[in-house]
Specification:
This protein has about 130 residues and is an alpha/beta fold. The chain has a single domain, classed as Response regulator (Rossmann fold, 3-Layer(aba) Sandwich), CATH 3.40.50.2300. The chain is built from five helices and five strands. The chain has a five-stranded parallel sheet with strand order 2-1-3-4-5, sandwiched between helices. Helix 2 packs parallel to helix 3. It starts with a strand and ends with a helix.
Length: about 130
């Protein structure tokens, strides 16, 4: 069984870049372009990991993060915040909001893949 990942980002090029790289690693990738759709897909698919942008029109990533981490059914899904918010204060806010990992844009795809492999190793076989 393949691992699944949900990529939630309002930038089509970011979604495509991440999706192509994750699919090349054998992951099944679902995408959403906004917070509402991202949360709905997360609840229906129950992915192994979520890569979540913070700054999106409408509901931002922090709201989605809070909602998913507050729910028993989705609280255990690791969430990687991927955002342009890069000040120390913003990074700290991301960590204290419940993110499992925090990456800033522009990002290194190898670093993202490495972290996802660490998540998958710690959660056991698919």
């Amino acid at each position: 069984m393949s691992r699944t990942c949900l990529v939630v980002d309002d930038e089509p090029t970011i979604r495509e870049l991440i999706s192509l790289n994750l699919e090349a690693e054998g992951l099944v990738v679902h995408t959403a372009s906004n917070g509402d759709d991202g949360e709905a897909v997360a609840r229906s698919v129950m992915p192994d990991v979520i890569i979540l942008d913070v700054m999106m029109p409408g509901r931002d990533g922090y709201d989605v993060l809070h909602s998913l981490k507050s729910d028993e059914a989705t609280r255990g899904i690791p969430i990687v915040l991927l955002t342009a918010k890069a000040t120390d204060e913003e990074v700290w806010h991301g960590w204290t909001s419940g993110a499992d990992y925090y990456m800033t844009k522009p990002f290194n795809i190898e670093e993202l893949l490495h972290y996802l492999n660490m998540i998958f190793e710690s959660t056991g076989p698919a």
